[in-house]
Amino acid sequence: MTNESTQPRIFSPQSYAEGASREWLVANGIGGYASATTVGSNTRSYHGLLVAALQPPVDRWLLLSSLDEEMGGVSLANHQYPGVIHPQGFRQLLQFRLDPFPRFVYGVGDCRIEKTVFMIHGENTTIVRYSIHNGQGSMRIVPLVHSRSFHSASGLPKIGQEPRLRGTVLHSSRKGGDLALLSDAADFVPQETIYRNFEYEEEHRRGLTWTENLLAPGFFELDISGDISFSVAASIDRDSMPNVPDELKKANGRLSALHSPHPRLAAAADSFVVKRGEGSSIIAGYHWFDDWGRDTMISIPGLLLATGRFAEAKAVLNSFACVMKGGVLPNDLGASSYNTVDASLWFVSAVCSYCDSSQDLEALKGFWPSLLQVVARYSRQEKDFGMDEDGLIVSGPALTWMDARVDGQPVTARAGKCCEINALWYSALRKMEHLAEVLDEPWDPSLAGRVERSYPRFWNRDAKCLFDVIDPDDPSIRPNQIIAAAVPDLLPLSMRRSIFETVTRDLLTPCGLRTLSPRDPRYVGRYEGGPRERDAAYHQGTVWPWLMGPYVDALLSVNDLSDECRVQARGVLQPILELNAGGLETIAEVFDGDLPQRPGGCISQAWSVAELLRAWAKAGEMHP
To answer: Is the pLDDT of residue 1 over 60?
Structure first.
């Protein structure tokens, strides 16, 4: 990698709108986080300096919304109220950067203020570190708090407080727990004030609740002359001030030790890996998702195997294997829902990738019964999905990853035999054959042979690509077929190349693959509006970055893994890796199908980051 790829990118927003369009996020390894914009404002109900996971990694609760700083009477804060941005601290902001934590640099006259935000790993504790250079006068810091689910702005509950030396402890009438606000140098002055009518513009755009009030329980204050460093901490896990220099050193050391195929995504990849009970799991996306089965299995190779985190990969696989029901992995582990036809097939793939990467034979022996359950479940037909007489899997509506609904009705139902589900089914059977050989277990390869003989039924002679679904036939040109194009022995090379060319022509963008060809009359090029509008566009043209992983797999496969095509693959991936739009140093969930391709959905999505990392690493494996 070049030095440029490892250096922090510096932002100097020239306006509030420019600064508010980029967001940062710091996670704590148990589902909690701190997040806001590069000017420090909150534009979402999900933004806050302490969003705590009360039942890690879920049940997340907004507690500390922001800290409003003033130096010598000049405010550094920014809030949107009806018709106005007030105060306008962005005018004092000299630069923002992630190195690796969010760092704001302000100038007030001759005074320079650096603010760094980080979290203690494994704790619901956020620390804001201030370094003041050439300060003169009083600095005041006003905490603005709430106690609510992070999902939606709401009314303030009753919040009481017990002032402490250099801090206070807040008690909410809701379940959020006691919030300690502490400082190692600034005195705390109790003075309760309700600030009204905060507006969260991103929620407004998304057609959701977007206004609320916040409580200021008082303020921290410190007289400054010259240079000084001090901190403010917010925590539900401790009621005394931590040793901030030691904690910051540990946090920096932990991140700098991470291995990643692409250095810019190292911290983002780490943010998704969380503890769940005694085990581990993967958060599907920030801000609002919890741990999803399909997303987790797709993400394991890029987030954990490509980064050398084999013990955590094993722990994540164990977490999901333990909650498998009759061979079916949960779609949403947090909600205990099992409405998915592909999560278990991705589980087989993830286990195989783990075992091939780690050579952990004992782990494979432990997973083998779960793998057999998967094959047994898919080999029989039940009401939601199962195997037909031709060996292909038939499934009901909205059970694949394209599962959006509007008014309870699937937008992209895909009921029948789906092209990628059956490619994954065939691949799973071949992987099981490989693993059985490793374990010296008996295995009958005839079922895989039957699927292979039946799969050419997906070929659409007119379009020279695959039907998206057969029985009934659906000729929609969608990206699902790219997964089949990457399986070397499933279809003839000429067919796989034709699929790749079709997907490249109709679906490829610099940010990922469109979910429907723009030539289709149902195509929706903008992912915007309220929930109904966004769900209607979700898989009808919206671009998904995670699909670049299968696309690169197909590119390499149909070109015999040549060094030339590896260079081409990295060239395809480079634009989105350098884009840095929306969430900084991470990859968003989706992008618009049409230009300009604005990011949408979650600002940081696990399988977006994971598949780009995996594909980048795979493309970099040049032949000797």
So the answer is: no
